[in-house]
Amino acid sequence: MKNILITGGAGFIGSHICLSLLEEKYNIYIADNFSNSSKKVFDSIRKIMQDKYDLNSIGLYIYEGDIRDESFLKIIFEEASKKQMPIEGVIHCAGLKAIKESISNPLIYWDNNVFGSINLLKVMHQKNCRTILFSSSATVYGDLNQIPFDEYSILKPNNPYGETKLVVEKILDNLFNSKINKWRVGYLRYFNPIGAHPSGLIGENPSCEPENIFPHICQVAAGLREKLYIFGNDWSTSDGTCHRDYLHIVDLATAHKKSIEVLFSKASSKLILNVGTGKSNSVLDLINTFEKVNKVKINYEFTSRRDGDIERSLAKTDKMIKILKWKPERNIEDMCKDGWRWQKRIINL
Ligand code: NAD
Fold first, then answer.
1. Active-site residue (options: 109, 161, 190, 246)
2. Three-class SS of residue 158?
């Protein structure tokens, strides 16, 4: 099996990808500075795997450091080669993701997300590893398009975070077009991943203040926050709240497994895919479902719209289904149940 480096592999998305690839017997290297995650997640991954797999045979190598540090990245590639398990591909999840923070402090977003990616690509090139799958975002589409967004929709993000994602996509395009070195590049434009692994052992546990809605819902349900603030009830939607294409985190991890297989199947390839369910729900739908399936109450209050938000986001998923020969399997009830199971475990409810 192949040897893969996951940057940001301790984070919400990276940890689920890590588990999913370990289960397929990939050897995994992790590069993470733990700025928004914890090393403990790898104990939980081992715990999930212990019943079905021989833990001694798992190839999981964890490196603490920053992707903006070239020498740190080189060490990982060099040690992997010494182990006779050279890194053959990279899944690049490391990055900052809060839209509001990116508006108030754009420089740290350009530094982390763009400079960090350039640094990674430079080291990959030097070490002859030219296969990369990048965590992009539906934010690159902005609000000029008709919904659903297909992969050819207008790319016009309306916040700095989305702009950093789009710039990295363009850099990957340039590398692919350079031809000489035969890059395999992929970018997955995630819609709204939520939920947690059904074991309740891994999920989203941000060290920084979360900006997306799902951790807030879980924290209100758990009594860690008094109420949930909903940004606007005056949007032109059925109930006035924004619509999003929510996707189960385990399905998103599976999409990575399928995508990396597709990338490796050709000498040179470029993959641009939306990853969503193709169904959207309003914020109130999500809250109502969460309350119903988990038998809990969510206190909420409407507040004014937030800068950088758009009314609706919905994926056209035909291309994803055709290329990956797969579609997401879990529904919004599963997302709410699994997310709540995880939240209860981390606060010992
Ligand atoms: P996360 O914060 O849970 O994970 C990111 C990980 O990267 C963290 O473990 C963090 O410690 C690490 N990291 C950040 N900067 C780093 C650096 N310079 N060097 C090394 N490690 C660094 O976020 P996530 O939700 O898992 O998101 C992963 C990726 O997916 C991000 O790039 C994000 O922009 C993108 N994305 C996320 C969503 C979402 O809703 N969660 C949607 C679209 C795209």
1. 161
2. coil
29 is catalytic: no
Cα–Cα distance list, 149 to 99, 145, 190, 319 (Å): 20, 7, 12, 11
How is residue 332 written in tokens? 């919004």
- Dig out the tokens for 31 from the structure: 């590069």
Quick check: helix, strand or coil at residue 245? coil
Q: What is the pLDDT of residues 117-134, one digit of tens each?
A: 999 999 999 999 999 999
Which tens digit of pLDDT belongs to each residue from 316-330? 999 999 999 999 999
Domains of the chain: 3-194+246-276+317-329 (3.40.50.720)
Q: Which of 5, 16, 36 to mutate to test the pocket of ligand 1 (most atoms within 8 A of CB)?
A: 36
User: In angstroms, what is the span from residue 221 Cα to ligand 1's centroid?
Assistant: 24
pTM of the complete model: 0.97
**For residues 4 and 76, is the Cβ–Cβ distance under 8 A?**
no
Q: List Cβ neighbours of 83 (8 Å cut-off, separation of 6 or more).
A: none
DSSP helix/strand/coil, 281: strand
User: Does 210 sit behind a cis peptide bond, omega within 30 degrees of 0 on the bond before it?
Assistant: no
Cα separation, 126 vs 133, whole angstroms: 18
